Amino acid sequence: MTDSPTHESVVSMAMLPREYRVMFEIEEDYWWYRGLRVLLQGLLAAYVAADGSAKILDAGCGTGKNLEILAQHGDAWGVDIAQEAIQYCRLRGIRNERTLVASLLELPFPEKFFDVAFSFDVICNIQHDVAAFREIRRTLKPDGYIITQLPAYRFLWSAHDVAVGHKHRYMARDLRVKLESAGFRVKKLTYLNMTLFPLIALLRFARRPAATGTRARSDLAPLPRTVNALLARLFSAEMRAAPQRRFPYGISMLAVARRIE
Known about the structure:
Helix content is about 40%, strand content about 20%. It is an alpha/beta fold. It has a 7-stranded mixed β-sheet with strand order 3-2-1-4-5-7-6, with helices on both faces. Helix 6 (about 130-140) links the parallel strand 4 (about 115-120) and strand 5.
């Protein structure tokens, strides 16, 4: 029996369990997460009311680092399909009622509840990704925004994708079509991480033979301090510009889209 659009299994949508521990342990300082938090702050400034009145969804909150930031800018809730992720959120001190185990295909919120939904590297884990976009749209207020970051280019598929549960990597035209078919108008669509694209692409190609089964490992691993600092500086500089710029290629994609009626 195949999964229906609203009943994909937890195992099929989640990362491998050990990856949540890895994320929790390194995301404070790891160059990738440091750069994404720079991007997140820029997006919050551009799309979220400065008075703290916004209702914000972290759709696939992982171990909760971004949710901590979102809660500083509004009334924020996080959901994740994995109980392990929610347990790590609670270790961060995030209130129980603001972190829920739930699927992005069946969100436990009423219609037209949120002003904005953020989803970083999560909808790509759902086979029926358009159904997830539609479900997030259901919970957004009219003219509410979805802001999503997703992996780019199928030819970059590697062991990293297997370990973190990806089902899709995207190209700009395909992502636009999916968002529009789910009831959004795309306001911004750009690739991300252009600067480090050659280095990461080479790593992904080298790791492609390992891209099978539960033995796969993500790219997340501690680096020498000087290397991590250099990568963080390069990636953060690009992410600081990303809310205003469009990049022609990259490892990831950023889409900002508004709910239309």
